[in-house]
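Appendix B, record 7
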Amino acid sequence: DHPELVLALIKKGTVDSTIAQHVLSQPHWKDHPELVLALIKRGTVDGWIATYALSQPHWKDHSELRALMNGEEPTVARLRSALRQGKTPDCLRAFGFLGR
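Structure tokens (predicted):
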């Protein structure tokens, strides 16, 4: 479990679909919503995120993602809208992924 390595791969931008499908679909990554949000900010694999990550119970019920959605179930469109409105959670800010 090395979120900093996954985030570095997201920043590089060459394996976004693999991360969405094979990493974020796994429940043990539930403590790293910054990875989901970083992929959404990139905007390259929205369908993959919706299908393989946000469809999973560990993301559907994630408290930090739901907080961005005012308690509603997180979707790519809603999360992107929240990020565009400046609702950047601490988890994303801490990894220095603002404005990219």
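Remarks on this record: The first helix runs from residue 3 to 12. The chain has eight helices and no strands.
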